[in-house]
Amino acid sequence: MSREQAADSTRSADGAAELMAGIGQQLRAARLAMGMSVREMARRVDVSASFISQLELGKTMPSVGTLYSIASELGVSLDELMRTHQAGFEEESEAAVVPESLAGSSPSPAGTIATSVAAPFGGGHAAPARQARTVSIPRNFGAGPVDHSPVQRADCRQELRIGGAIWGRLTADHDPANDFLHVVYKPGGESCPPDQLIHHRGIEYGFIITGQLHVQVGFAHYDLNPGDSITFDSATPHRLSNPFGRESTSIWLVVGRGGTPVL
Fold first, then answer.
1. In sequence order, what are the beta bridge partners of 223?
2. More confident residue, 106 or 82
């Protein structure tokens, strides 16, 4: 590795560390503002208290679904969390790496890093020794002029990218009660680990556009193909994943989630 490449890697690692620390600090502030203990937060989203503590300290990054559930409980908007630290990333590459000092790492394709998560998952289950978690920060996340148009252009969509999952907001502005999302799962991508199903308020409606998507709702499992759709109560523990060989794209609508929109 050249000196310039090493310097770029260090800057990206420092930026990712700052991003995670900032997200953790704001989640902690929101939790304290609600007068909620770490144990109560963990109970509500079915993870361990240790995991919540590690997240608030910026030492681990949850799955996209778990972060969604936590933000929903706290009434926190993820685009606001990300935008707070966007300025420092606008000149960086699209994918930021997670420093080894946070969670031992090894290189993975596309300029990202697969990180090990030291904190245990919910339900008393310990995390695998090297649980892959890729954190990717869109170059222009949260940027762009506000023109109050009802049209959301594809090239400036708010997106959250974690671990092979890309959730993009399809509304031009916040919706106070619902989430309208364009969702992509790359092969191997998932909304949450198999032993950490998520749940939150609302009713979900999903429609598969391309590829296939595996959906678990409670103890039931469904393989969905293009043109298939599904509806279920979001309070039922659920998980979306792509164990197939082709990228999956779908449209999701969460109605009645309440609180601050997540994206």
1. 214
2. 82
The residue length of the chain stands at 263
CA distance 97 to 31: 27
Q: Which residues contact 251 (CB under 8 A, 6 or more apart)?
A: 170, 180, 181, 182, 183, 206, 207, 209
The CATH code belonging to domain 1-263 is: 2.60.120.10
Residues 73 and 101: beta-carbon distance below 8 Å? no
pTM of the entire predicted model = 0.68
Name the phi and psi angles at 158, rounded to 5. -65, 130
pLDDT at position 97: 36
**CA 27 – CA 75 distance, rounded (Å):** 10
Residue 145 CA: distances (Å) to CA of 11, 72, 115, 170: 27, 27, 34, 17
